[in-house]
Amino acid sequence: MQLDLWQVDAFAAKPLEGNPAAIVPLAAWLDDGLMQRIAGENNLAETAFFVRRAEGRYALRWFTPEAEVDLCGHATLASAWVVFEELEIGLPRVEFETRSGTLVVERRTDGRNAMSLPSDSVAPFDGANGFAAALGDALGVAPPKEIFRSRYMLAVWDDAAASRACCAPSMPGD
What we know:
This protein is α+β, with helices and mostly antiparallel strands. It has helices spanning about 30-40, 75-85, 130-140, 160-165, and strands at about 5-10, 20-25, 45-55, 55-65, 70, 95-100, 100-105, 115, 125, 145-150, 155. The longest helix is centred in the middle third of the chain and has 15 residues, at about 75-85.
C-alpha cells in the first residue's frame, strides 16, 4: 500500500516551527486499526486522514498515537493547507465533515487561513464553590473566579498569570 503523507507545521511562519501534524488524504477510508497504527508510526500529536466527498468538501478524522479524537484545530488547518496548496489549488474555502460538526476553513487575502470551530453551550457549575478551592489547591494557583460545565469543564481566572501557571509546563530552574 502506498499513501501520500504531508507533515505540516500549523501556526508557523517558517519551517520547523509551530505545531506539526501528519496529513494523509485517502480515496476511501482505511480500517480504523490501520489508521491508528499509521498515527502511532507518525508519533505526532495528531495524524489527520480525510476523504474527498465533493469539490471543497471532505470527511476528516484525527488520530493521536493512542486514540481517535473528536476535534483537532491544528491538524484541521494543516489539512486545509494540503487541500489549498496541493489538491484543489485556488479553492477559496474547504468544508470538513467531522465528529464535531462541519468545520470551515477559508483563505484570507493576507495569505493566512481562518477556521470556524464548533461552539458548545455552557452552564454555570453548581458545585463551583468547593470545587473551585480544591481546583486552585490542586493546581497550585488561586481558585478560579467562575467554573462552567459543558462537555468539558471551563474554569475562568481574573489573572492570566494564574491560568498560565496551572497550564504551562515547568522548566528546569523554575
